[in-house]
UniProtKB/TrEMBL annotation, chains A, B, C, D:
SUPFAM superfamilies for this protein: all-alpha NTP pyrophosphatases
Alphabetical GO biological process terms: nucleoside triphosphate catabolic process
Protein's organism: Halarcobacter bivalviorum
Identification of the protein by name: Nucleotide pyrophosphohydrolase
Signal peptide range: none
GO MF, one annotated term: nucleoside triphosphate diphosphatase activity
Amino acid sequence: MDMEKIKTIIKEFSTNRNWEEFHNPKNLSMALSVEASELVEIFQWLTLEQAQNLSSDKKEHAKQEIADIAIYLIRMCMKLDINLEEAIFEKMKLNEKKYPLVDEKGNKIEYGKKQ
Amino acid sequence: MDMEKIKTIIKEFSTNRNWEEFHNPKNLSMALSVEASELVEIFQWLTLEQAQNLSSDKKEHAKQEIADIAIYLIRMCMKLDINLEEAIFEKMKLNEKKYPLVDEKGNKIEYGKKQ
Amino acid sequence: MDMEKIKTIIKEFSTNRNWEEFHNPKNLSMALSVEASELVEIFQWLTLEQAQNLSSDKKEHAKQEIADIAIYLIRMCMKLDINLEEAIFEKMKLNEKKYPLVDEKGNKIEYGKKQ
Amino acid sequence: MDMEKIKTIIKEFSTNRNWEEFHNPKNLSMALSVEASELVEIFQWLTLEQAQNLSSDKKEHAKQEIADIAIYLIRMCMKLDINLEEAIFEKMKLNEKKYPLVDEKGNKIEYGKKQ
């Protein structure tokens, strides 16, 4: 994913509209969670089976909401000077420790069970 | 950002733990919004000024929450067969139309005002 | 529900701790959505069937999260000078219009279909 | 607040539309968090000062979103057989213990600092 190109497009879009002042990290965290809820809204009344078999309309809608979340997430990284790729690699390493494959007795860990 | 590498790491992590069955798109939308709220939680009682000047502890915390959001977002893209980079470029083009620089009378658009 | 008693308890709790200054409506909206996500978290990996048959531990946990949401909701009403009971009655009347029992052709309305 | 009357109205509204099957606790937790985000959306780009001085339009909008949250919250209590008033009183008692007025050294507790 060409992150530099994406960041340039997002930055220009925002600067051209004089929206920089609104993009405070507090406000961006709110906007991000609002977009996350717009994705939740697509799935809220669906069964698990229906959620796995979205119509093409609903899939296109989900794609747009996912993009909105990504855009605010990248905006947030720009404001907090965070390298997203590095953050992901570091977090996956933490997750490997937090959710080891087996517990101290050698038993397989249950879903979501933290060490 | 090396998306293929990230997807491989996320996929292996999940497969090794037999977590694939839980990663239904409905469930993932919920998990994503929960992580988005954990980012909101960092900022909820801060002033706008404090939010722009996070302590290094809070910044590290924010970095981890941002990574969690990205991980579930990429997981969702894998499950719905969505190319995230393409989704972002398409959405930014839609945003250019939705929020033009000037309205039909040639006036500069107010913040967040849609055409 | 004895709303006056609840409001008095919430108000005193907050005043005694000098927390009034933090309870700006913007901050409260964030706190409320964070609590809503803590309720979502309980259900995120459950099937629909499991969600209808919570263990007593999970039910007690849900009860506490529901209370947290209610407390911030009432706090918000206090700050915005909104009568919650009146707001509910008014909204249910709007919903009756928005989701009529039959559409203009006399057909039963599908789930969530707005007029 | 006349909770019995509210519950009757909500129940009838839902039964008349055959919506009961959709009101699984998992789905309701999602709908509740979506409504909470619609309240967040009103405040996301406002300063703390602006949030305290809403226009009458925005206040009316907030009132409707607050009602939506309350309606789903009460719906959830009905599905999980939870007495909301009791839940609030119990949680406020827990909060009194969790956030005591002074810490073990007799110092006043900072905002949000848990014992």
